Amino acid sequence: MEQNWNVLKNACMDCRACGLCETRHNVVFGVGNPQAEVLFIGEGPGENEDLQGEPFVGRAGKLLDVMLEAVGLSRKHNIYIANMVKCRPPQNRDPLPEEQAACAHWLSEQMRFINPKIVVCLGRIAAFHFISPDFKVTRQHGEFIEKDGVLYMGMFHPAAILRNPNQKPVAFEDFVKLRDKILEICTRTTLNFDD
Ligand code: URA
After folding, report:
1. Residue ranges covered by each domain of the chain
2. Model-wide pTM > 0.90
3. Separation of 54 CA from ligand 1 center, angstroms?
4. Does residue 29 have its Cβ closer than 6 Å to ligand 1?
5. What's the CA-to-centroid distance between 81 and ligand 1, angstroms?
6. Ligand 1 center to residue 21 CA distance, Å?
7. Angstrom distance (rounded) from CA 136 to CA 153
8. pLDDT tens-digit profile of 19-47?
9. Architecture of domain 2-184
């Protein structure tokens, strides 16, 4: 398992399937525990992520970490975080359809390996792809939707919460719902860590 994961990661790190490989500093493969039962999916790397090679390390990422920690979750231990697109589009433009298409199989393979019980879609774009093209984050955030035996939940994107801080309490309720669902259905997930 570990060996296959490393093979996948190494292949992704060398990917040159679209033009984003010309401008990226780092491929942002993902971070966390590949044996986690909970997978978070974001949209794509921004400037900080591109420079550091890790998802959600800017201001939005710090907010995500604070909310995660408050419910006993941590990117170091009991979740995995990946983006739909692995390389930063220049000037943070939206990835082109052909860039998304060239990249999609990396996340599919990560999902196949991780085989999560719960998938959290951070923001509209991930929810559009993994839950439904009709998904409305403002109305449906925090709801669990079952697909093929996996529970999907859409949440506000942490960058959206930074832009609209009065959403913070409502957004945090979704983390509490997530924690409750983990306690209900996840058998291998230990909550709470000292670091
Ligand atoms: N936004 C995302 O969707 N992903 C990141 O990694 C950072 C910001």
Report:
1. 2-184
2. yes
3. 9
4. no
5. 10
6. 18
7. 12
8. 999 999 999 999 999 999 999 999 999 99
9. 3-Layer(aba) Sandwich (3.40)
